[in-house]
Records
---
Amino acid sequence: MTKKRRIPRLLQLVLVVLGIYLGFVLTFDVILGQVIPKSLLTMYMFFVIAGVLMVFTFTEESAQELIGPIKALVEDPSKKMVRNVVFVIVPLLAGVYTYASLMPSFEAPVELRTIHPAPPSSVKAFGKRFDLATLENPYRKFEKEDPDKFHKLVKQGGEIYIQNCQYCHGDRLDGKGPYAAGLNPTPLNFQDVGTIAQLQESFVFWRIATGGPGLPAEAAPWISSMPIWQDFLSEDEIWKVILFLYEYTGRQPRSWEHE
Amino acid sequence: MRQINLLKLLVIAASLLIVSPTFAKPGDVDRGKGIYDKRCTWCHGDEGDGTGAAEERLNPPPRDFTSGNYKIKTTAFDEMIPNDEDVFRMIRDGMPGTAMPGWSSLLSEQDMWDLVAYVKVFAEFEEAPEQQVDYGTPVASSPESIAQGKELFEDGDRCVECHGKTGKGSAIKRLKGDVSERTWPRNLTKPWTFRGSNDPKDIFTRISTGIAGTEMPSFADPKSKKMLSIKERWHVANYVASLAKTQKVVNAENTVIKADMLEGDLLPDSPDDERWEQTIPTTFLLVPQIIGEERFFKPSNDTITVRALYNDKAIAMLMEWDDRTKSIPGDERAEKIADKPIQEDGVAVQLPVEIPKKMQKPYFGMGDASRPVNIWHWKSGTKDTAETVAMINSRGFQDIEARDAAEVGLQAKGSYKDGTWRVVMVRPLTTADPENDLQFVEGRFIPVAFAAWDGSNNSEKGSRHTMTTWYWLLLKPSTGAMPIIMALVIAGLFAGALLWWARSAAGGRKPQADSKEGTA
């Protein structure tokens, strides 16, 4: 066996744990773009350390190998210098950790919510019921039948959008309107492939007509600043604005037929 | 002769390099029109005259390109035509503090050069501009330069006339833009609202060119009594850049107002109390109320800074916000600056009647049927009446109940100075009516939201105001000596255990060492 040049087991363990930690932080912060809450990270890391320890101490031999250096440190007279240093640092670290964990944390509570909740089968708006499974955009058909008329409808939708929606969703439709930074949750980015391209027009109609307060509880309706548009716009106007959303971003609504 | 010509050429080439570090690429007018008709007409209008659909709801309004006014340019003050790079920069980066976004995330570089070419057609700008801003030898920022800049800024009210003594734009005059829109002098302590940046070079340029289409004049114009030399303009620019150093900036991560405990002491009931200086300010963006009821699109207030202190009896909150005008209905000077009819200034704090146990809060817009909110509403008063504080319980816009603020023990006191309102509100931690009043508890995260009214701007009143959504208020529990004692105990235990281990190891070392030798 090539025992000589191997990294000591203890160092291996530390490296593995550190690697996983960095992996978590990287995936969440950089790739997924959302900072992982501290409490969650602590919990994950607890399981990771427990798991790694189990693997590393699976056999008697590997356990010995792991503990060896620690034992040597305490027992080997030639390591007196290192020992003294460790004996000062370890209690100090324990003290600092205790202090830090006893000082109350002032991090805001984490609130998890669904952004695209499952739609109800029918919704109430404009004083009537709409069956979302059969509801269609009455103007969509002109896309093929009468492109000129369709173009005009899109233009009208754009005007409604710029008068009512750009403050939040932005004139680039990227969710970065002039006031977006002051709102939490932030307004939806329609350019993103994960938003309107994934939705049927009937769903979008429901979301616009009833706004934030029309969301089910799992989507935290009490914090969404999306206005209730049935209070300001007509049914027609909402359908037109929907045409504009798809046209401007070059996306197609999801339709029942394709499924 | 030939040599001289060559020299001339070299000089011209070199000066071109200095003036325009990014060379303009020729844009294609026709392609530009195609992109314009899809992206820009909504605001700037089909004819480029600024009469797009959003005109009525934007201040500043979308630019009328036929006017030929460009706010951010590097050509001399008496030169109407901007450099292509100037126009390109505004299209690429946008104009902060306005609805004009930057387009680099959606359009290619060539697209944007094409737009430059097309947009210039509206004002029939065909020739290249001739006169450029002369930067001379830049003066680096230093305490001396800043001090000189401050003097020039204030001298003869040069800049103070419009921007106010503190640079916050506390207006002495009512200003208008070219399309007779209300313009507010820039708040120079808020660099994120600058159309150009607040880099000294940018500020130098603005002071030199003035801002076309607004009353901001050029200070390079020899005809102006307030003209500044190049050197002086650099000093002023350095001073203006230094105004941005403030604690009161928005930090998106910071959503919690932390109230410190004041043991035993009386709480500050005045905004001028020195103890506020030791508290941590938390600043939030204010957005116009464009969500329900009568909507409001043209705000002037844009941030609010909050601090809080508490003791065993009460909590005090200090709200500070920059407001260029002290709006006092009935006061002649205030009325002159204000949009008519003038209203009182105001600020409101919104809190849930009950601290949510789980995630669910009342609706951020004045609560909802099952979760009411408390609203504390301070108003600045008129010429004949004093400031007031009202208390409201509401379950949504429609369901509002007036309460008696005095009965609850709610007090408020405001003061206005140099473009900033500071208002303190104090309320006992608990009240006799827990069904209807929030009972403050230490250590719990309490949702809190704010609203502000500028009575001189578009008659802000009622639902016409600026606001925040929910943030958090935390009464920081006083931990006392507990953490430090526990830390010492734990550290001691660790040290003891280690020593004990070493001792016992040393005690049995001999036989162990033998066995080790044996195995080695």
Note: Chain A touches chain B through 55 residues (CB under 8 Å).
---
Amino acid sequence: MTYQTTPDQRVQVVASSVGSSFAEARDVAEAVGAPRSTGSARPVGRRRLTDRRWFVIAGGALIPVLILAAWQIVSTTGLVPLSQLPSPAMVWLAAVDLAQRGLLGLYIAISTQRVLIGFAVGGGLGLLVGAVVGLSRLSDILLAPTLGAIRAVPSLAWIPLLILWFKIGEESKVILISIGAFFPVYTIVAASLRHVDRHLIEAGRAFGLSGVRLFATVQLPAVVPSVISGLRLALAQAWLFLVAAELIASSMGLGFLLLDSGQNGRIDRIILAIILLAILGKLTDSIVGLFERWAIRRWA
Amino acid sequence: MSADSAIAAPPRAASVGFSDVGRAFSIRSRRKPDATRDVLSGVRLEVGAGEIVAIIGASGCGKSTLLRIAGGLDAPTSGAVSIDGNPVRHFDPRTAVGFQEPRLLPWRSIADNVALGVPRGTPRVGARQNVDRLIELVGLTESAGLRPREVSGGMAQRAALARALCRRPGVLLLDEPFGALDALTRLKMQDLLIDIHTAEPTTILLVTHDVDEALQLADRVVLLARSEPEGPASVSQIVTVPGHRPRDRGSAELAELRARLLDGLGVDRHGTAHGVAAVTTIPHYPY
Ligand SMILES: Nc1ncnc2c1ncn2[C@@H]1O[C@H](COP(=O)(O)OP(=O)(O)OP(=O)(O)O)[C@@H](O)[C@H]1O
Ligand SMILES: [Mg+2]
């Protein structure tokens, strides 16, 4: 028996704090799966095909390429009318057209900016409040029920209120996204701090640590990997809430593009917006994912 | 193996006094919300400064509990423990604990884990030297940079021992420090403990399952046992071991004491004659 409590605990912690959406469930699975493939534990010797970098990349690209091919075939053979499903080329042209009007870059930029600001604010607050609730039994008793109730409010329910309070400005959207990003981080940080191995905390205390030094030496490192999983979920939530916010109250951004195109029957632009959201979401997620891998190697 | 240490003034060994120590744990259930179970009761023991006392007893009889109380990790429900005449404080800084499990921080290297034992306020250079020296003494220099999950159970246990030794406490509390080691490494570590104790005579309370180890290391051996099957344990025998360390493992005097202690543990003479005493303890990890 070697000494490994952290991965199992993380599984338990992450799983116990799963939110609602499907996207979250998928990311939880990824986050939970990740620790098993950490670098240093890999047996030396013959490398399997599934460990090779090119195979991983090619394998991941396989299904998108197949979908693209199927899409092309379906639209050129006329299996589905172009008015229902425009061809890849038409979507590409819609992108070029929007870019020439200077709208594509603007929409992507404004949407990304909203997500990043909302993610930073919500994630930061989530870390803070999660740490307070996870470390102090008293604040757990005082705050956790209320926060749980607020978390239970569906995101769309906030929108009318936010619009009345903050009009259609940036604040209303950033606040909504912050709410979305706050809860996964808060939930996971609080839960994982509560579940830090008691034995290790006791050992830390026995060796003279307490307060901030105990936190920095034992508790914080113990939760770093799950905190980053929480941040990853928060980022996914931020994109989710962005579209909700922009669909309902905005004049710019990818959500607005979706709404506007829906009203004008521009299916090519709708598909374009969906593809852009997929790419941007995956891109930002991969960045946090890299950070997560590093953190697990460093701290777990 | 040398145990020189001119790094700082050696710590002053402290005496430990247990006066009628009892510990009951609550075993709450829905039917009996305030049921308790007495684990220890009326433990009375005076350990002199610089003395090595081994505690033996059946599994689950409360050895670890007693050690935890001595270190201020747990509080007795009755009686009191004092160190140098003062009551033990919460996580008493005069003590250092080598836990029954290694309890190393998984994200730190072995060297950094050992360094955790260095008391606050030690000058950096001296601390580093002390850590390196102890890592060398427990034979982990090669593995100093590895993480706990990359070393074996016995190596982790030696690292935990080094961490406790780093503290250079007045009272060293060791809970089965050699449980996970093979016979040879175990002998080496026993010698190391004796060397360190000779160089810096600190008080050592050592829990072990191995009667021979107790007789080899300790000035006195304390047998904890229950007087009735489900009742609390208390001190049932205190054996003063004759002779100076290192002792002759084959001496007839020790054989007689061994038989007595094994008898107290419930092992019959027939069993000892067939070498049950030499069976190594099964390493015990609650993980
Ligand atoms: N925190 C606790 N809550 C309830 N019961 C406990 C607790 N800690 C210990 N006990 C009980 O106290 C008894 C003594 O435990 P302890 O760990 O001291 O035994 P031990 O003598 O060290 O055994 P071993 O040799 O197996 O390590 C056990 O029966 C255990 O169930
Ligand atoms: Mg024990």
Note: Chain A touches chain B at residues 1-6, 40-41, 199-200, 202-208, 210, 217-218, 221-222, 298-300 (CB under 8 Å).
